[in-house]
Write a structure and sequence with these properties.
This protein is mostly helical. 69% of the residues lie in helices and 0% in strands.
């Protein structure tokens, strides 16, 4: 059980970093934090490019994977007694 716990923690770290990177790669839509940093100057074109759609897909898949890892770690900690003090 300890090996699975370590593997999930490493996977959580990797997915967290990749998810942050993928989110930062998205174009700013305006009206939020992207306006504060100069993103409001972009045109109003929608994300119809193949690269943007693939980036959206990868982000969603990685987000779901991140959530599953979080739930798995929570279940391991709950039922193994690792969180008890």
């Amino acid at each position: 059980m300890d090996v699975l716990h370590v593997i999930l923690q490493i996977l959580l770290g990797i997915t967290s970093l990749l998810l942050t990177l993928l989110i930062l790669l998205h174009k700013g839509r305006g009206g939020g934090m992207s306006d504060m940093f100069g993103g409001g100057m972009s045109s109003g074109l929608s994300s119809s490019g193949v690269a943007e759609r693939n980036l959206n897909r990868f982000t969603v898949i990685l987000g779901v994977t991140w959530g599953v890892v979080i739930i798995g770690l929570g279940l391991i900690m709950r039922f193994s007694g690792a969180g008890d003090s």
